[in-house]
Amino acid sequence: MVESKFYKQKQTPQNNNLKKYIRNFITKFLITIIIMLLLLIGFKTNIDFKNSFNKYVYNTSLPFTDFKELYDTYFKGTKNKDNTKEVFNEQLTYTDKSMYEDGVKLTVSKNYLVKALDSGIVVFIGEKDKYGKTIIIQQMNGVDVFYGNVNSSVNMYDYIEKGSLIGEVIDTKLYLAFQKEGNFVDYKEYLK
């Protein structure tokens, strides 16, 4: 009889933990179902809800840089990091600049190496009308920078430090455009 009391006392804390785990799981599962039902009801009954949801989810640019800031804040210091970086001291130098489409056209030297104007994430590499081969970097300040007429030396979703090499100009024209929250903005405040 002494052994059975000991056995019951030893198993009680584990049973309590199991009950808490099951209770938490069921609560989270029910909350998820309620949220899904509310979303489905919203889609069925309200056209404005559906349109605004689709506009926000499908037509709005996802700010990867916000996630990068959160990651740096909470997780960056937890791992050993390698502090070595490539040295690239190329400054943005050009002989002429003129308005072009939604941005600026800079005349640069042949085989000009293009550096990132600010830190950010590569969100596009490919052809753009009127810009040719283009790299788009979403900077940490929320501005998307289009680097046009550039052969890329980066990959999609690479995190690029300010001043890092991103590519080489194809001829002597470098096209830059700056977009914030879906609207092109004046290049003069970003080129100094």
The whole-angstrom Rg is: 26 Å
User: Architecture of the largest domain in CATH?
Assistant: Distorted Sandwich
Shape: elongated
Largest sheet, in brief, is: 8 strands, antiparallel
- Which structural class do you get from the secondary structure elements? alpha+beta
Total number of domains: 2
Strand content: 25-35%
Helix and strand succession? HHHEEEEEEEEEEE
CATH hierarchy, class of the largest domain: Mainly Beta
What would you note in describing this structure?
35% of the residues lie in helices and 30% in strands. The chain starts with a helix and ends in a 7-residue tail after the last strand. The chain is an alpha+beta fold. The mean pLDDT is 81. Strands 1, 2, 4, 5, 6, 8, 10 and 11 form an eight-stranded antiparallel β-sheet that branches. A three-stranded antiparallel β-sheet has the order 3-9-7, with no helix packed on it. It is elongated. A hairpin with a 2-residue loop joins strand 10 and strand 11 (183-185). It folds into two domains: 2-60; 96-189, Distorted Sandwich (Glucose Permease (Domain IIA)).
